[in-house]
Each structure stands twice: as C-alpha cells, then as structure tokens.
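In this section we walk through a basic example: taking a raw amino acid sequence and producing a predicted 3D structure, encoded as discrete structure tokens. The instruction is simple. Fold the sequence below.
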Amino acid sequence: MKKTSYGYTPEHVESFKKINLPKIDVWENQYPDNDYVIKIVNPEFTSICPKTGLPDLGTITIEYIPDKYCIELKSLKYYFLAYRNLGIFMENAVNKILEDIVKYAKPKSATVIGDFTPRGGIKSVITANYKRK
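The resulting token sequence is shown next.
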C-alpha cells in the first residue's frame, strides 16, 4: 500500500465516497416551465485537505435551473457543515456537491464553483457542470 509523505494512502483520498452526508431537502417548484436561474452562494465553506491536514477555505457558488424541485436552504447549510472536518480534496468537494445537487434536486442544468482561498501563494477555482441530456 503506497503512502504519501504525510502517511495518506489512496484509500484515505477516496474515503469521502464512503461517508454519509446529510440529505439535501427540496420543495416543489411552482414555475417548472420557466427556465430561471437560482444562484446560491456560501462564502464560508470549509473542508480539510486529506494530504496535508490543512483547512481548505473558500466560497461555493451553486447556479442551477430548476425543474420540478428547488433546493431548501436550511438543509443545504447543514449539508455544507458536514464538510467542515471532512478530509477531501477541493476538486472532489466541488464535484461531490454537484453530484448531490443533481441527485436531490434533479435540475435541468447546474454549475458548482469552488473559489478557494490561496494557500502557499496558489489559488484554485474549480468549476463542475451538469446539463441534462
């Protein structure tokens, strides 16, 4: 089993796939025939880098075109809080958030942007997109 310089194995890196994040609740969209955009911004997203153990801080922005459902914000807040002590790479966090938005809200399209605070002089902005086929 290969370990990184910090003692993390590939199993550690993928461990986020095995956790149970809170469900994102939804409510019925009253305008499903309209293609309007909902934008949700969380400027206080926090997770932990699984390689270094350092915090990753950033702004998560979700933009989606709802179909039958809209995201309930209180449940989304608790969903985000579950990442606080979770060892997950920033790239995986953004893609996991998009995966769960699609799973629960079933939007026509969605984009999740993770705009992370610079660490060591390097800034990362990760964008993940979904469009229903």
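Looking at the output, two observations stand out. The beta strands are 26-28, 38-48, 55-65, 69-71, 109-116, 125-131. The chain has one domain: 25-131. In the next section we compare this with other chains.
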